[in-house]
Every structure is written in structure tokens, then in C-alpha cells.
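Worked example

This section walks through a single chain of length 261. The input is the sequence exactly as stored; nothing has been trimmed or padded.
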Amino acid sequence: MSAGPPPYRLLSVAISNGCDLMRWLLDRAGLDFDEELHVPLLHIVATWPRGAGVEVPVILAPGTLWKGPFGQLDAIDGHAPAGAKVYGETLEERLANNAWLRQIFPSFFGYPRQYVYHFVLKDRRVMTPIAIHGAPWWERMVVRWLYFLWEPLLRRGLGITPQVVADAPAALAKGLDAVAAELGRRGTPFLAGDAPGGVDIVMAALIAPLVFPPEYGGMAPPLDEVTPVLRDWVLANRAHPAGAYALAVYAQNRLHYRGLP
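Given that input, the structure is written out below as C-alpha cells.
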């Protein structure tokens, strides 16, 4: 007798670090799920009719949906067993980690994807396989045949402007400095202590677009195929203490859990 479909479904796009974060945390929490991949921008056809708005990731849960970064983090944390909580195990660490993530989250929400997309969208050869991975056939065809229309529409939807591109590196450098300062304040190699915990997974995923982790669970452009400006920026971020920290979290933890289908 069939066990039926998994109780959870993740609506996602392959390149998104936010989607990879939820993929990582769901598996870590032991929540059985399948994944429904879409092309960026065209994903709205799947999210809007389900009442999930225009953003991914979205998690369809039994009788409800989890949306928004902290709506999803809180829900996964609430369903995770001891040892796999997002915010930690003791009340003290849970309060501290929740407050820290809410404080730092705005520093890494918009600029990373805007800056990386700005450069990668210019190269159709690099962007196309990343955008269409796992998507329905008709979405793949839109990108392949109508890239000249899809690309500017996606730029507009992401709010990519010359001013945003100019401001992003300095703003993100401040975010990295803040992470490094918090690690220094806690006096441990990871926010959770001597080994990565849920709070470190969230933090590393937020930093991922800045450092292109080799163990990334989504789709990312090969570093040797991106424009030199983007490549040099990524390499500089990898050398930053917070960038090295994020890479260490991925190296020690990411491959234990499922990646893209």
C-alpha cells in the first residue's frame, strides 16, 4: 500500500539561497518533503494562486502554508525534534539567536541577489541552465526563446538599478563585519559554539551569494565563468572572516542533507 506523497512541498527556484536554506532545514528537521521548481519570475504562476504571494520559497504544509523567512524558520523550528531546532535548545540561546537573526537579516535580504543577478543575467549562456533547472517545460521554453523579454522583467521585479548595484558592495561589507563582530563577541568559531547549529545554517545561507560555497545545495554559476568584477568580489568575501565562517558551515554540514532534485 502506497504511503502517499510527502506531507510537505517546497516551492522554489534553483538559484535561490533562501530556497536552499529551507531545503536544508527541512531535511535536517526530518520533515519529509518534495520540491516543485520554477523559473525565477515565472514562479508567480505557482505561488500566487495558492495564496502565497510572489516570493519563494513557500512551504505547503498540511492544511496551511508557511511563507516569509521568519514564518518558515519559526514553523520548522516548532516541528523539529530536539537537536535539530533552528534557534538552539536552551531558552537563553533560543532568545539570543532569534534576536540576532532578526537584527542581521535585513543586511543580507535584498542586495546579495540583486548584485549577483545583475552580473549573471548579462550572460545568457551562464544564466539559462541555472534559471531553468527542474522547471516545467513551458517555463524552460520561455527562458530559451524569450530571454530578451524575461531578463529585463526579472531585473525590474528584483529592483535592480544602477544605484542598487553601486551601493551593494559597501552595504554587504558592513553586514559581513557585523557577523564577524558577533562571532568575536561570542568567542566561539560558530554562533552555536564549537560546531555549527541551526543559527549558523541560517547565517551561512544568507551569506552564500557572497561566497559561492562549493557545497551549495542549489544552482550557482561556476566562479570561473562569471565576469571578473563578480569573481573578484566573491574571492574577497571568501577571505573575510565572516565569509570564511560561512564556507566552514557549508563544508562541515551541507552535504549531510539533500540538495536539488
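What to look for: The mean pLDDT is 97.
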